Amino acid sequence: MKLTRIETFTNEFVGFVRVTTEDGARGWGQVSTYHSDITCQVLHRQVAPWVLGQDTDDLDNLLDIVTEREHKFPGSYLRRAMGGLDTAVWDMRGKQAGKPVVELLGGTPGPLRAYASSMKRDITPEQEVARMQRLRDAHGFDAFKVRAGAEVGRDRDEWPGRTEEIIPAMRKGMGDDAALLIDANSCYSPPRAIEVGRMLEDNGFSHFEEPCPYWELEQTKEVTDALSIDVTGGEQDCDLPTWRRMIDMRAVDIVQPDILYLGGICRTLRVARMAEAAGLPVTPHCANLSLVTLFTMHLLRALPNAGKYLEFSIEGADYYPWQQGLFTHDPYVIEDGQARVSDAPGWGIEVAPDWLSRAHYQASAL
What we know:
Strand content: 15-25%
Largest sheet: 8 strands, mixed
Number of domains: 2
Radius of gyration: 20 Å
CATH class of the largest domain: Alpha Beta
Number of helices: 13
């Protein structure tokens, strides 16, 4: 079925994509968050010319054609724009079939264990523990992720001693049975990462994310080889050969592709298959409550090598004010620590008309 129209509705933070085919079928997707206005320009300028008028049945091949035709621009913005096309086509396919995307991917609707994922570093360990306890009591979370170090911090902490404080504080405050995860956001050199990793092991943490600069795979592998805790990473990586090298060298124990950073469901499935062949689980990155978390929910319910949890951002209007009012109904209800994939066709959502009316609109068409 040939694409005839690509429309975008965007602000600086989030950009929705609507595709239309020659028979009038439509689907909603999303480019990656942050600088979404720029990404939508890339979509119209560098993706639309290669896909309008083309058949969407072999979406993998169509995405490869975009990559090849735009070989001089192989970076993140192109992939983030491709993700908008890909996810809109999957929604269209689901609506045409009368099935949720998860079923098109070979899975079934149903629950997913979620971990409460903190984005904050400007919060004391005591404050972080207290809000995690409130979330546990209100929504039944039994897994929690906090932040270590400073983002790309060159071994610096957000303030001196914060990491040494928050690690034991989380274990003491959440109890022996809670699953505890931590994210260093590319902070550490290998020696410091290993030092922090030993503290994590001593306090029963199970997941140490992006300990070293993510682009330094050899540094990350050094940490992975030195520790018994699972070292994880990959959210920033959008290049498939880099993924192949990361997995072949076993730089991490768990791979964490971001569906929209990587370029959509099709390309994420390629990474998941690489990981499956290597015996590695997939726990995707999805750190906000735009559509990326919903995309990830459908994917996780279909992957044979899905990881233990869904990442679920706990930040609200104070941290992500742009998340408010995106959809006509909230797809993100947590009960007993679990999110749920519905059986509604496609992604099962509608973008709020009020939001669309305020967004910048652009269309590319035959």
